[in-house]
Backbone:
């Protein structure tokens, strides 16, 4: 069954001081279009990026709110990071439809496109703006989802390709990371794309010269990392994923964090690797103690 998810970007609604109605409106509409749709995810404006990342993997993700021009409106910037195939024509059609009702429609920023296999579209936080989006998207969503599925070639891949997908490993270690071994474990003859993210220690941070550093992990970090990678893997069911983060003392040039993603097709591998890298950095409690060249020490990641 086709799946859709709705994200509401509203700091007031997330705090419980405002009752959002655009999210339920979108959910009801998507269900009427035949999509399996859960209740809206409501997040504060500053948490949109993490919220969007959690919903990716559905066929459709629609956001409402955070598309204006105030400093708090961050939805467009958060969503743009994930879109690898922009569809500007969709937004132009929504703006054109909105101009029939109000000249202020063009003041709402927006973005639409494919994030991996997920179609994502940002709509304003007003009822009028949401209805404009629904009117434009209603005849398009089915074709978008069907076309995206066709481009992914999933129906043309042998069954054993999907059978090979999953987590190869996801762990934290205090030993040097062997990127070659990780790639060897992750790649197979069925995987036509292997993407590696190799996060290495650099010699500067925030304009300060760095001599070396030490990573420290919370006792629960390994479990959190495994759960994060499992979530990403479930959103990319045709991808093999390997992820490892280093702890302890590291020198400039050492590998601190490695992600390897392998899939039959490049879009799956690229997007899965990026999603794992972003989610691990954002969610796994690992802290960095930087030793600067002048003898000072800086902690990064502790709030």
Residues:
């Amino acid at each position: 069954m086709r799946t859709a998810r709705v994200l509401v970007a509203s700091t007031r609604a997330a705090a419980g001081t405002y009752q959002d109605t655009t999210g339920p409106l979108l959910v009801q509409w998507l269900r009427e279009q035949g999509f399996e749709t859960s209740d809206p995810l409501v997040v504060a404006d500053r948490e949109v990026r993490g919220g969007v990342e959690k919903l990716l993997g559905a066929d459709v993700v629609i956001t409402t709110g955070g598309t204006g021009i105030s400093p708090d409106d961050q939805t467009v910037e958060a969503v743009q990071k994930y879109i690898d195939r922009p569809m500007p024509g969709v937004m132009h059609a929504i703006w054109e439809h909105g101009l029939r009702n109000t000249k202020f429609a063009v003041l709402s920023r927006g973005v639409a496109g494919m994030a991996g296999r997920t179609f994502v579209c940002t709509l304003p936080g007003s009822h009028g703006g949401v209805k404009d989006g629904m009117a434009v998207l209603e005849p398009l969503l089915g074709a978008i989802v069907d076309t995206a599925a066709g481009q992914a070639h999933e129906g043309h891949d042998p069954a054993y390709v999907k059978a090979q997908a999953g987590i190869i490993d996801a762990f934290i270690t205090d030993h040097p990371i062997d990127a070659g071994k990780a790639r060897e474990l992750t790649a197979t003859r069925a995987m036509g794309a292997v993407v590696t993210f190799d996060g290495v220690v650099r010699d500067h941070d925030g304009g300060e010269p760095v001599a070396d550093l030490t990573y420290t992990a919370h006792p629960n970090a390994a479990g959190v990392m495994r759960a994060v990678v499992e979530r990403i893997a479930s959103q990319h069911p045709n991808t093999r994923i390997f992820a490892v983060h280093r702890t302890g003392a590291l020198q400039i040039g050492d590998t601190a964090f490695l992600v390897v993603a392998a899939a039959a097709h490049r879009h799956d591998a690229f997007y899965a690797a990026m999603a794992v890298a972003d989610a691990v950095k954002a969610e796994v409690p690992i802290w960095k103690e930087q030793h600067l060249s002048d003898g000072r020490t800086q902690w990064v990641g502790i709030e």
